[in-house]
Amino acid sequence: MKLWQLIVTGLVVHVILFYSIFDVYFTSPLVHGMTSYSSTLPPPAKRLVLFVADGLRADRFYELGKDGKTIAPYLRNIIETRGSWGVSHTRVPTETRPGHVALIAGFYEDVSAVAKGWKENPVNFDSVFNESRYTWSWGSPDVLPMFSKGATGDHVFIDCYSDHLVDFGGHDSTRLDTWVFDKVTNFFADSKLDKSLHEKLHQNKIVFFLHLLGIDTNGHSHKPYSRAYLHNIEHVDKGVKVMEKLIEDYYNNDGQTAYVLTSDHGMTDWGSHGAGDPSETLTPLVAWGAGVRSAVHQQTCGHYDDNFCKDWKLNHLLRNDVEQADIAPLMTYLIGAPFPMNSVGTLPKDYLNITDWQKAEALYTNALQMLEQYEVKMNQVKESSIAVTFRPYKELTPTKKFESLKYLRTLMKNGLYQQAIKEGDLLIKTTLEGLNYYQTYNRLFLGASIVSGFLGWMAFILQQALQENSTIYLHRESDLQQTTLFVILGLLVLIVLLVQHSPWTYYLYCLLPVILWNKATQGLKFVIHHLNVIKERKKIVTLSLSIFINLLGLQILVLGFFYRELLSIGLVGMALWPFFNLSVSFNKISIIGWCVSCLLVAVFPLLPLVGRNSNIVVVVVSGLVEFMLGVVIVWWEHKRYKRKRINWILIIEFILILAATCVVYITKSSIKSGYGLPLYCQIFSWLMLLICPCLPLLSENSVEERLTSVGLSFLALYQLMCITYEGFFLLSLFMLLYFWLKMEHESSNNNHKKILNQIQFNNTNFIIHHNSTVCRSLEIADLRRAFFYIFLILIGFFGTGNIASMNSFDPASINCFVTVFKPFTMGTLMMIKNLIPLLVVTCVFRGVHVITKVPTRTLFLLVLLMCDFMGLHFFFLIKDTGSWLDIGTSISHYVIVMSLIIFLMLLFAVSQILTTYKFKIFSIPSHRVAKSTN
């Protein structure tokens, strides 16, 4: 198999393994075909007003300032006098779409829903808005359309502002909320002149939805501890006060309006969200008005493990925490609308100002709605299973379900309402457990298939590596018996899946290991041959020790995902490598440079995460240091190799570093002053994004000069995305990579060894042609080289970020390019920033390949093998129970490792272009390489 074929196969296999966790652990529990249920009791309210303060953290809302005063005095007064309050616990992913779906539909979308477009993918399930008679909503164009387009009929009306109003560039984001408040004011004023609208507004079961995005925008731009974030909370507090008075006046204080204020998600200290940190999953919930219980004063706020009540000075008021999905049934009950058919929320009865009898009746209806989903889900699983193998949920068989409902009605009929409430809660809890049981019904079967696929792929690439480096030719005849066995096995798997009416993805997960193990076992002869060769040459101990050290290093990398400091320990271990490699006599300067650079890079995993505190001074200083280093490199290169002409490409690159530093400073100052992103800075930044990757292609093909050009060019681009010490980190990493290249050059055993500057990147396409005559057989040292590459890749990725989550990377780092909210553009730019260190490491790895003459295909296979070893680790560590921080972290770990494997395949191809291709369009002054003076 050629290398390009192997890369394509690897991409397909890893995409399947990557996507598998969403079928194994996070499939959507969405079902259709249910009957809706609503309470038969008179509703306590005719209308409901929902305020969603996007990105509002619970602690920032409830806590008092240093002066003992609240930043939201009106809402604080409601909490202490006439409302109910608590903490709404959200789930991962803590993003806008899933959060609003949970709030308004009572339903938790699967994790993959975060990747869906918002306007283009309206909700395809029931919601509070859909069950209302009319809903009017104002706010973000990224939220409102998905509910209006997903609703049945024409009764959900939206009014959105322009995308361009959402700007992270320092403009006052309270204007987003002011726009909403002004629109609502004008709406009610206009209704007095519109008879049809006036009639609609005086009907029951209507909802007003005010989506307030300002807090989230200010959180991204200025962080949750900034004055701008707190000022926006004050602005929302005042706006809520004005809106309540406006609505009460409009309806002549009829006491038929209920109010709910909450948030879709919180925000980390560094201004991001998406994972499971408590700052992201804890949001406020305040309800007041018609049908809502007033404040209950008591000695403690309730039985909670945290100290929030004391910290927030609310310990004297009863606190009622809810799951985010519980808010949907609360809203529908208040206005008498049917519960959303897909809701998994339990009615938070302690928020309601109703009798025990009414609570029991409401919970009974809630249970019926849940059981309707349970029945549909159970029938779906039953129909897709072989009858003799179907295992029903024992705690909620049809008989037990009937008896539970009958017992509940009997309790209510006999006036035992307190006991009926307990039984209703228990029935709902059991139903949710039953839904989860059928949701995870096929998990063991699918998990075993995925693990078998992982192991089959690893076995396949191992035998490919051994086959590539076999010293003898083994004639492999087609083993008809073995092939027949795997064909029969594949047919059996196919028949079982067809009988069960399994989804098409199940065919991929189950047939993949059959194909891979068939291919892997065909190379068993090569494995046996190499084991015999190793035994004959008496290198079993040496090989075993090398494998053990590499496995230990990989285990450190796995543990480093949980304890970031362990990466520093790994770097210290790498610094000691020359002292244990006694067979090579390294240059003393190289050893000192290697050790110093390893220890220098080891400092960064111990520093605070980038994003928590930006520092423009550090950015400017790092840019100046990079500029001076560029000057030194050009001078040193000119002097050492006696250049006849100046290398203008390197000069242009270090000048661009200085220019990028100036642009970052100007942009930061402009945004801080409230003027936003200057147009000329934005144009320069986008031009840099186009120019920098092309500049190395104008330099010479010598390993040293081309890699220097790659490093300086991407340093300039990276500088535009720095907000604190990242520039120093990348500079230190480049220093480490340079000495790695020198050490590998000194340790190589090639005859007629050239000086480093005379070694050229050849123009052979290593993706297509891999059987180069200049390449040698595999050595034990190649295991170390592959491990160093993987370790440096992860250092490059996480040296400045949080190992636990991708959301640790601060969106403020792309302010030089864009400040207006464009999620896909911003995500792409963030990805480019994270990939720049990886790309440079891969280019240097290409240099190591050229210097040591190691076969590229074999080195690539070793890298894949080690990465898949880590990927399998994290597959077993995925959680869907426990705290949302643990769940989110486990997902992030697996996604990061599998994404890295996929990107590494692409990076190998890109590094080929950056290191070997040369533009000849322009007449760039070139020079011959003179003999070194050293």
From TrEMBL:
Q: Name one GO molecular function term.
A: mannose-ethanolamine phosphotransferase activity
Its family? Belongs to the PIGG/PIGN/PIGO family. PIGN subfamily.
**Pathway involvement of the protein, from the record:** Glycolipid biosynthesis; glycosylphosphatidylinositol-anchor biosynthesis
What Enzyme Commission number(s) apply to this enzyme? 2.-.-.-
Q: Which domain of life is it from?
A: Eukaryota
Which GO terms of the cellular component aspect does the record hold?
Answer: endoplasmic reticulum membrane
The top of its lineage is: Eukaryota, Metazoa, Spiralia, Lophotrochozoa, Mollusca
Role played: Ethanolamine phosphate transferase involved in glycosylphosphatidylinositol-anchor biosynthesis. Transfers ethanolamine phosphate to the first alpha-1,4-linked mannose of the glycosylphosphatidylinositol precursor of GPI-anchor.
What InterPro entries is this protein classified in? Alkaline_phosphatase_core_sf, GPI_EtnP_transferase_1, GPI_EtnP_transferase_1_C, Phosphodiest/P_Trfase, PIGN_N
Main localization category = endoplasmic reticulum
Spell out the protein name for this chain: GPI ethanolamine phosphate transferase 1
Keywords attached to this entry: Endoplasmic reticulum, Glycoprotein, GPI-anchor biosynthesis, Membrane, Transferase, Transmembrane, Transmembrane helix
